[in-house]
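As a warm-up, study this chain.
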Amino acid sequence: MMEPLPIALTHLAGFLLFIWVIKRFAVGPVMRVLDERREKIAGHFDQIEAAEKRVAALKDEYEKRIEGIDEEAHRRMTEEVNRGRRIAEEIAENARREAANIIESARANIQIQIAQARVQIKDEVIALTLAAAEKLIRERLDTAKHREMIGAFIDELAQR
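Now compare it with the structure written out below.
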């Protein structure tokens, strides 16, 4: 029988050779594949993290833009309301001016009509006075007749 030491050394040498072969041809390539896979997965996680940061940055940018749009809309709406108020005030002022012009024109027209009526009344008084004087001259009247005619003349003036 063989001695146990040389058998143990042979077993040990075979085992070490087996370990070296496994390490060289099995564990090494498997570890390289696992390392590559680990690096690839880590790369994907880095890409995902970078994408999440870009998404967050875009979200912030869009929120700021939305706020800007809201502010711009509010500003424009305020400007339009103010513009509408100014237009309403201008329209009201123009209406007031037109009303004042119409009133002034009506007053002037009334003054002209009053002046024309005075002239017409004056002409009528003159005509009536002339007619009365003509009647008086044609007839010689006594005092009673004269008073009666003047009273009739005054009554006639009052009726007109």
